[in-house]
C-alpha cells in the first residue's frame, strides 16, 4: 500500500506528512479548499467537500486505500464504493455506529461500556419524563456534526431547554430528533486514550492523558495522566473492547470522564487521530499519525510509548479575525526549553480556530502536574493577548 487517500485536509491530515515521507507513502487528499493545511503535504488533491462521494470515487481510482481525518462523510454513498471493492480503513461498518452521537451511545452501552445516562429526543411529551430522570443541569447535544463543543449545550432549566430546542426553527416546531439529551457528569477530570489496531488485529494503546477543555474546546493535554494503575487498566480494556468489536483498522481517539469517586465513563469516540494524541508527535516513539498510516498500509504497529517522562501539549486557538502568521509569538514559544511548535499554516485566524499547538517535553523532576500547568500558563501568556 503506497498510495493512501485521506478524506479531509485539515491539520490531522497535515500532521501525517512527515510520517508518510518516512514510510515512503504518498498521500492524496480530498478537501474543499486550496488553503486547507494538508494540500501542502499531499502529492495530489481532489478538491471537493468531504461528503462528496463522486469526488471520493475519483480519489479511490488514484489510491490503494482510503482513510479518514474527518468523519462527516456520507456513509450511504460511500458504501456503494466499498461494495465495488474500494478499500476503506477503517471500514465503513466500523464508522456506521459512531457518526450519530445517539447511535454511538447506544453502541457503547450495548457493548457493556460505561456511558452517561442518555435519551434520544423524539417526542415533545417525553421531555418532562426524561428531565425527571436525568435532572438538571442536563446536556443537550446535536446528534450529528458536532465538534469542538459546537452542538453541545449544558442547560440549567426547562425554559432554557425549550428555548434552545425552538431556536433556529422558524416555524417553532421542535425538531427534537436531531438531539440527544444526557446526564451532566460532574467529572473530576477528563481523560483520553489513543488506540490503534492493525489489519491483523494487533492493538497498541498510547498513555492515557488528561485533557482540559474550556468552553468545551480542548486547551491542554497532559501526558501521562496522574491516575491509578487500575484506572489505566480499565481504560485500556475499554479501548480493546471497542476496537475489537468494531474490527477497526486505524487509529481511534476515546474521550472519557473520571468522576470524583474514581469511576470512568466514555464520553465520545473519534474514529481517527485526535487532538488528545498530538503530544505523540514529539513525545512518543511512534506518533499517532505514523501509527494510522502503518495500520491502514498493513504494516506492523510500533511502540506508542513515551520516550520522555512526561509532556504537556497546548493548543494555539485563534482569538481574533486576522491573516497574521503570528511569527513573533511563535518565535517566543519556540524558545521555551524542550518546546516543539507546530503551526498549521491556516490562511486565516478566527476566534476558537485551532491554528497550531506546542508540546513541551518534561524532565523527570518536572513530572508533577503543577509543573505541566505552569508551563501551559507560560505558553498561553505568550500566545494570548493580555
Ligand atoms: P464535541 O463532539 O463537540 O467535542 P463533546 O460531546 O465531546 O462534544 O463535548 C465537549 C465537552 O463538553 C466535553 O469535553 C466536556 O467538557 C463537556 N461535556 C460533554 N458531555 C458532557 C456531560 N455529559 N457532562 C458534563 N460535561 C460534558
Q: Mind summarizing the main beta sheet?
A: 9 strands, antiparallel
The total beta strand count reads 17
Beta strand %: 25-35%
Number of DSSP helical runs: 13
Tell me what you see in this structure.
This protein is α+β, with helices and mostly antiparallel strands. Helices cover 30% and strands 26% of the residues. It is built from 13 helices and 17 strands. It has helices at residues 11-14, 17-23, 53-62, 75-83, 92-95, 101-110, 126-134, 158-166, 229-246, 280-283, 288-296, 327-334, 369-383, and strands spanning 3-7, 26-31, 44-47, 65-68, 118-120, 138-142, 152-155, 179-183, 189-197, 203-205, 209-214, 217-223, 250-258, 264-270, 310-317, 339-343, 354-362. Strands 9, 10, 11, 12, 13, 14, 15, 16 and 17 form a 9-stranded antiparallel β-sheet that branches. The protein is globular, with a radius of gyration of 21 Å. The site of adenosine-5'-diphosphate has 20 residues, from strand 6, strand 8 and strand 14.
Provide the fold topology.
Elements: E1 3-7, H1 11-14, H2 17-23, E2 26-31, E3 44-47, H3 53-62, E4 65-68, H4 75-83, H5 92-95, H6 101-110, E5 118-120, H7 126-134, E6 138-142, E7 152-155, H8 158-166, E8 179-183, E9 189-197, E10 203-205, E11 209-214, E12 217-223, H9 229-246, E13 250-258, E14 264-270, H10 280-283, H11 288-296, E15 310-317, H12 327-334, E16 339-343, E17 354-362, H13 369-383
Parallel strand pairs: 1-2, 1-4, 2-3
Antiparallel strand pairs: 5-8, 6-7, 6-8, 9-10, 9-11, 9-13, 11-12, 12-15, 13-14, 15-17, 16-17
Helix pairs in contact: 2-11
